[in-house]
Amino acid sequence: MNELIEYGPALWEGFVQNLKLSAVCAIMALVLGTVLVSMRVSPTPVLRAAGAAYVNIVRNTPLTLVLAFSALGLSDQVGLVFSDDPAINGFWLVALGLSLYTATFVCEALRAGINTVPFGQAEAARAIGLTFFQSLTLIILPQAFRAVVAPLGSVMIAMIKNTTVAVAAGYLADVAFVMKDTFDTTGVSIPIFLGIVVAFMAVTLPIGFLTGWLSRRLAVAR
Amino acid sequence: MRVGRISATLAAAGALILGLAACGGGGETSAAPSGDGSVVDKVKNTKQVVVGTKWDQPSLGLKAGGGDPEGFDVDVAKYVIKELAGGQDVQIQFKESASSNREPFLANGTVDIIFATYSITEERKSKVTFGGPYIVAHQDTMVRADATNIAKATDLAGKRICQAAGSNSYKRITDPPPDGELDLDAQLVGANTYSECVSKLSGNNLDAVTTDDLILAGFAQQGGGNFKILGDPFTDEKYGVGLKKGDVKTCEAVNAAITKMYTDGTAAQLFAKWFGKAQGLTAPTAAPQFETCA
User: Fold this and answer.
1) Most CB contacts within 10 A, which of A37, A70, A181, B128?
2) Same domain, B209 and B182
3) Residues in a beta bridge with B228
4) In chain B, how many domains are there?
5) CB-based contacts of A22: which residues, under 8 Å, 6+ apart?
6) How many CB atoms lie within 10 A of CB A184?
7) Residue from B20, B29, B100 to probe the interface with A (highest A Cβ count within 10 Å)
C-alpha cells in the first residue's frame, strides 16, 4: 500500500496522459468513423471499395503494429513530424495511430446501426428529393447513431484501455509505462496494479452505464 | 442445482482473491535469506545452477534461436561457475532476467546467480549481495557516423537523445547528481528497447543514443559502419554478479574466480572476442576493485 501512496502522484500524471489520449482519440475516431461509414454506404463504387479496404486492413492489424508503424515508419522514416518537441510529437503519433485504428470499429458499429434503419426511410428521403448526402445526414445517420449508442460505448471503453499500448509507439509517459518503470525500483507491487485497475474502472464503468441508459432513452420506437 | 453451481463459482472466485492476497503479502516478506545453503555449495554438490542473463543485448547476453544466449556476460558466467565447482563441468540453465525482475528473481530463488549488465548501486546493495565487479563500463554516446555537431557528451545540450523503457541512462544527461550527472537540457525520445533506439538513430527523429559503452559497442559492431561511439566516457558502471542477499560465501568465491579470470588472461581474451571491433574502447588489464561482500 505504501508504494501506491508514494508513487501515486507519478502514476496519476501517467493516467492523465491516458485520459488526454482518450479524449483526443474519441473525437477523432468518431469523426473519422462517420466519414468512413459514409464512404462504405455511398453510391460511388470507388469510395465504397476504398472504405471497405481501409476498414478491413486496419481493423485486422494488431494495434501494437499500427502504433509502431506510426512512430517508426511514418515519423522516423517518412518524416511526419507534428512538433519539434519529442514528447508532443510522440503524443500525437499515438493519438493518430489509435484514432485510425478505433475509427474502423466506430465505422462498423455505425454500419450495423444503418442496417437497423428500415429501407423505406431511405426511399422516402429520396422520394421527397433529398440528395444522398442530405438523406444520410438528416434521416439515416441520426437514427443509426441512436441504435448503436451502447455498442459505441463498448468501442470507446476498448479505446480507453488501448491507450495503455502507447509504449509500442515509444511514448513513455502513460500509466502502464510509469507502472513498469516504478516496478523497476520497487519490484512488482500488487497495490499499484489494483490502484490502476480502479482508476480505469472509475472512467470506463460510468461510460458503460451512461451509454446503456442513453441507448434505452434514445431508442427509436418502431 | 443452479444454486449449487453459483455457490461453487463464488467459492472459486473467493479462493482466487485469497490467493492473490496471499501473493501480495508473500512478496514483501520472503526477501529474507532462507539459509538453505549458499550457491557455491549448490554448484559443488548438485552440479546444477540457474544463471540469469539478458537475452536482448548484443555482445553481452543475446539469445538467437533455440540455443543458450551468447555474449560477454554469458562467457564470464560460464568461467565463474566452473571455478566455483572447482574446475568440474556444471549443468547451467540460462534464464532471461530483464532489468525489472532481477531483484525478485534472486529473492525468490528463480535464479541462483545473475550476470546481466547489473550495475552495482547503493540502492540495490540493500536488496542484493554483489560479487565483483567483473568489469567496469562507462556511459558513452553513440551518434550517426556522419554527425559532426556532436563530438563530446556536453554537446548533447538541446539534442534529442533516446530514453529506452526500463533504463535510467538518460538521467545522467538530463539530471544533476546524485541521480544524474551532466544536467543538460536534452530532449527525450522514447523507445521500447535500445535496439529500437538504434533503429531510430538511422531515422530523422533522434540525434544520439547514450548508455554503457559495452552495450553501445555491441550495437556499433552489429550496425556496420553506420554509427560511431564518441569515446567520451563520463560515469563508472560497475557490473556486478547478483547473488541472494546475505550469500557472502558465494560472493567471496566469485571474487576469487574473477581475480583468476584476469590473471590467466581469459578476461582480455573474452573482451577482445566480444568488443574487439568497436572503436573507442580500451580493454581492462587488471581486475576491477572489488566491493566488500555483504
Assistant:
1) A37
2) yes
3) B143
4) 2
5) A156, A159, A160, A163, A203
6) 17
7) B100
| Residues written for chain A | 222
In a domain, B62, yes or no: yes
Asked if the C-beta of B104 comes within 8 angstroms of chain A's C-beta atoms, the answer is yes
Structural contact between residues B199 and A77, judged by C-beta atoms closer than 8 angstroms: no
Taking contacts as CB-CB distances below 8 angstroms, the residues of chain B near A184 are: 99-100, 166
Element (H, E) at B162: strand B160-164
Residue B146 shares a structural domain with residue B221:
yes
Tell me whether residues A177 and B123 touch, CB distance under 8 A: no
Q: Smallest Cβ distance to A190: which of B20, B187, B190?
A: B20
B159 and B208, same domain (yes or no) = yes
Q: Is B108 helix (H, G, I), strand (E, B) or coil?
A: coil
**Residues A158-181: tens digit of each pLDDT:** 999 999 999 888 888 889 888 888
- Separation CA B214–CA B276 (nearest Å): 11
**Number of separate helices (H) and strands (E) present in chain B:** 10, 12
Whether residue A187 and residue B188 make contact (CB cut-off 8 A), yes or no, is no
Residue B32 lies in a domain: no
Read off the C-alpha cell for A85.
518537441
Residue B285 lies in a domain: no
My answer on whether B144 and B182 are in the same domain is: yes
Distance separating alpha carbons of residues A43 and A10, to the nearest angstrom: 51
**B88: number of Cβ within 10 Å:** 10
Whether residues B197 and B244 fall in one domain: no
Separation in Å, CA of A28 to nearest CA in chain B: 24
Whether the predicted pLDDT of B21 surpasses 60: no
Q: Which residues contact A79 (CB under 8 A, 6 or more apart)?
A: B204
Half-sphere exposure of B18 (CA within 13 A, CB side): 6
- The answer on B104 and B171 residing in a single domain is no
Q: Are A187 and B103 in contact, with CB atoms under 8 Å apart?
A: yes
Closest Cα in chain A to B160: A86
Residue ranges of alpha helices (H) inside chain B are 2-29, 39-46, 72-84, 102-107, 122-125, 169-174, 194-201, 213-222, 248-263, 266-275
- The CATH number of A16-174, from 3.30.565.10, 1.10.10.10, 1.20.950.20, 1.10.3720.10, is 1.10.3720.10
Query: Tens of pLDDT along A2-59?
Result: 778 888 888 999 999 999 999 999 999 999 999 999 999 998 999 999 999 999 999 9
Q: Domain range holding B159?
A: 139-229
**Count of beta carbons in the 10 Å neighbourhood of residue A92:** 19
Q: What is the CATH number of the domain that holds B261?
A: 3.40.190.10
How do the domains of chain A map onto residue ranges? 16-174
Question: Is pLDDT of B129 > 80?
Answer: yes
B104: left (phi over 0), alpha (psi -120 to 50) or beta: alpha
